[in-house]
Specification:
alpha+beta; 4 strands; 4-stranded antiparallel beta sheet; Muramoyl-pentapeptide Carboxypeptidase, domain 2; 5 helices; 53% helix
Length: 169
């Protein structure tokens, strides 16, 4: 029997939260290593490709684990987003929700908040976010379209760091 199987509920949730922080740390360190060696533009392009593929893999695993159907629409996407790796460490919400549309907002973003504490400008993550959210949503339900409402370097409301509209036409 593995040590993990002996953990209680609270310990498993703590371990999962630590895994989320570790995932984010690896993501940041990977980006910085590529950036240092090849420059910011190359690192961003590599990051866009990696996150597109990762988002599809993550979405498909979430669908399989929780029995989310291929044509579940916006409700399925909203459910799946709550199982994403970083959901435990970033505060997010949904607004303007209907059966065919929702706005997802990243209310607290650990990456952007860390940069802010260091006196750095917002990380311009919009190109990465476009790949990430488009590929994740499409892997949940191929009918779902994604539009960026605002994401750095765009100006954004103080209520959120980025916002994404998901809709089915």
């Amino acid at each position: 029997m593995s040590a993990i199987s002996k953990l209680d509920h609270a310990e498993i949730l703590g371990l999962l939260k630590d895994a989320s922080y570790n995932w984010l740390a690896h993501d940041g360190l990977w980006f910085q290593a590529v950036e240092e060696k090849y420059g910011t533009e190359a690192a961003s392009l590599c990051n866009q490709e990696a996150i597109a593929q990762y988002s599809e893999i993550e979405a498909k695993r979430i669908k399989r684990r929780f029995g989310i159907s291929d044509d579940g629409g916006i409700p399925a996407l909203m459910e799946a987003i709550q199982y994403r790796m970083y959901h435990l460490i970033n505060r997010q919400d949904f607004v303007e929700v209907s059966a065919s549309r929702c706005i997802f907002r990243m209310v607290e973003c650990r990456v952007q908040q860390a940069r802010k504490k260091k006196g750095l400008p917002d990380y311009p993550c919009k190109p990465v976010g476009i790949k990430e959210y488009t590929h994740f949503a499409q892997a949940i339900d191929s009918r779902i379209k994604t539009r960026c409402v605002a994401c750095p370097p765009d100006r954004h409301d103080d209520e959120f760091w980025c916002a994404w509209e998901f809709f089915i036409e």
